[in-house]
Amino acid sequence: MKTHLGNYVREQRTARGLTLGQLAKEVGYRNVGKGVNRLRALEESGTAHRKLLDAVVRALRLDARIVEELTLADRDEREREWSQWANEPIRPYVVEKIIPGVYRDLKIPDEHLDDPQGFAQRHAEQNRRRVCFVASRRLSVWIGEDGIVEGETAAQPDVPNRPYMTV
Question: What local confidence, expressed as pLDDT, does residue 157 receive?
Answer without folding.
Answer: 86
